[in-house]
Amino acid sequence: MARSILHIVLGVLLWVVFGYYWHIVMRRPVSPEMKHALVVVGIIVGSITVFDFFWVFHNVRIARRSRRRGRRGGSVPPASDFLGRAFVLQDDDMIRRARYVEVHIVEMADAENHEAGYKMFRVSDVIPD
């Protein structure tokens, strides 16, 4: 709550400073270049305002159709990576809750020199230095 109030006060203060500086500028005689600059700034501000309005309207419409109401469901982890190495998981839930996950690639070869490998995941709540 205090952070929101601070943001509002800071925003109002910045607009007051902005208005004060425009007041200083507007006391000078208006040249054709200044009129052109005001028109360009006005067009840019107007364009951004219209774009923001339609963007907010678009998001409100999506929210009313009850999309994005909650978190997406977790996807099912694949059985192997794109090189064919199998995943060896400790516990799916444990991996999702972990703050730190190490992935070890273990390569092995049998007597006939057929290479096989797998990925092993290790989880930890402590992030190493």
Residue share in helices?
40-55%
Structural class by secondary-structure content: alpha+beta
Low-confidence stretches: none
pLDDT averaged residue by residue: 79
Number of domains: 2
Number of separate helices = 3
Task: Please give the radius of gyration in angstroms.
Answer: 29 Å
Largest beta-sheet characterization? 3 strands, mixed
- Percentage of residues in DSSP E strands: 15-25%
Q: Strands of the largest sheet, in order across it? A: 1-3-2
SSE string: HHEHEE
**What is the strand tally?**
3
Distance separating the two termini: 35 Å
Name the shape in a single word.
elongated
Short description:
This protein has 129 residues and is α+β, with helices and mostly antiparallel strands. It is built from three helices and three strands; from the N terminus they run H-H-E-H-E-E. The mean pLDDT is 79.
Describe the structure.
There is one protein chain. With 129 residues, the chain is α+β, with helices and mostly antiparallel strands. It folds into two domains: 2-28 and 38-64; 86-124, no CATH class. Helices cover 50% and strands 18% of the residues. It contains three helices and three strands. It has helices spanning 2-26, 32-64, 92-97, and strands spanning 86-88, 100-109, 115-124. Strands 1-3-2 form a three-stranded mixed β-sheet, with no helix packed on it. Strand 2 (100-109) and strand 3 (115-124) form a beta hairpin. The longest helix has 33 residues, at 32-64. The protein is elongated, with a radius of gyration of 29 Å. The chain starts with a helix and ends in a 5-residue tail after the last strand.
